[in-house]
Amino acid sequence: MLEALATLLAFQLLGEAAAHLSGWPIPGPVLGMAALFVAWPALPRLHARLHTVADTLLANFGLLFVPAGVGVMLHAGLIALWWAPLLVGVVASTAVTMALAAWLFSRLRGATPRD
Amino acid sequence: MTDAVAPAGAVRALWVYLGASPLLWLLLTVGVYAVALRLQRALQGSPWANPVLLSVATLVAVLAATGTPYATYFDGAQFVHFLLGTATVALAVPLRRQWAEVKAALAPAAITLIAGNVAGALVAMGIVRLWGAPRELIASIAPRGVTAPVAMAVAERVGGLPSLTAVLVIASGILGATMATPLLNVLHVRDWAARGLAVGMAAHGIGTARAFQVHPVAGTFAGVAMAVSTLLTSALVPWLVPLFT
């Protein structure tokens, strides 16, 4: 459990360092995730423990973004002014993404509709 | 706070002491979320009873009612907040677990995921831009399609407001999970893999949870779409935002 947690933190640190040194606008933890994905076959001894720790963390994923979400109170004025474009933007982009993805993927797989 | 209660002075003194300590706000963050999660289970996992949305609304109300500044609250809540980055790294683990299934449909999935992520970001940014909103709002809505911690990290990097992004991400998840079944039925998409991919991509974790309720194949593909979109959006959006700001 501790080895797995230390592994996650090590890849997070690696990602932060890579983001900082490269100057890419990609978040450090995402680079850390990509690095862990690539390094996975090299860490067979840790797989079982990484599954346990990752499942525990991800099962409570929602909790982790509550503190930042509460920060929305700092932007109450902006939201009161611009709620309409934000709402339309969220609804339209969610619908467009979903419709395009479903249509394109079934096309590309040459799939006859299956149930 | 009123002075109507008799021992108000003592309560107030205790409040001043506890209200300034990180422990109280850490406990409230975890406690309110636990109650919100129970409430959602009691409502059969309804996407409208999203525990994150309920927790944020409750905590904002508590902070407003007690006149507590966000900075004081965050002194306690930062211990939870820190784990966001670590949990993001941990997303590699479920992606590895489902890798065999992804590889089998790799090319069509990759093209669909790139097209969908780019289209979603362009539509969102385009609407907000045409409406004349300031640039930090354009940057805040751009990554709204991916899971919150990553979207927030992207927003931070491109000059958006991460906490506003978190709210927009949750709204996308709830709307996407709710509109998926009617929208995809109207479009006559019957392939469960395609339906799952579309929902996981448009509505991240909340959509994936919904897809698993509907069909196991849809759920698996939704999970894969969520994980890959996380990588794609964080790689692509930072280059797209400057086109709109």
**What percentage of residues of chain B falls in helices of 4 or more residues?**
over 70%
What amount of the residues of chain B lies in strands?
under 5%
| Annotation field: number of helices of chain B | 12
Helix/strand-derived category of chain A reads mainly alpha
- Rg of chain A over CA atoms, rounded to whole Å, is 20 Å
Description:
The complex is a heterodimer of chains A (115) and B (245). Chain A is 77% helix and 0% strand. Chain A has helices at 2-22, 28-39, 47-59, 61-64, 66-70, 76-108. The mean pLDDT of chain A is 88. With 245 residues, chain B is an all-alpha fold. The termini of chain B are far apart. In chain B, helix 2 (22-42) crosses helix 3 (51-66), helix 9 runs parallel beside helix 12 and helix 11 crosses helix 12 (216-240). Chain B has helices at residues 8-19, 22-42, 51-66, 70-90, 92-97, 99-104, 106-130, 135-141, 148-157, 162-186, 192-214, 216-240. Chain B contains twelve helices and no strands. Chains A and B meet through helix 1, helix 2, helix 3, helix 4 and helix 5 of A and helix 2, helix 3, helix 4, helix 5 and helix 7 of B.
Properties at a glance:
heterodimer, A: 115 residues, mainly alpha, B: 245 residues, 0% strand, globular
Write the layout of secondary structure elements.
The complex is a heterodimer of chains A (115) and B (245).
Chain A: H1 2-22, H2 28-39, H3 47-59, H4 61-64, H5 66-70, H6 76-108
Chain B: H1 8-19, H2 22-42, H3 51-66, H4 70-90, H5 92-97, H6 99-104, H7 106-130, H8 135-141, H9 148-157, H10 162-186, H11 192-214, H12 216-240
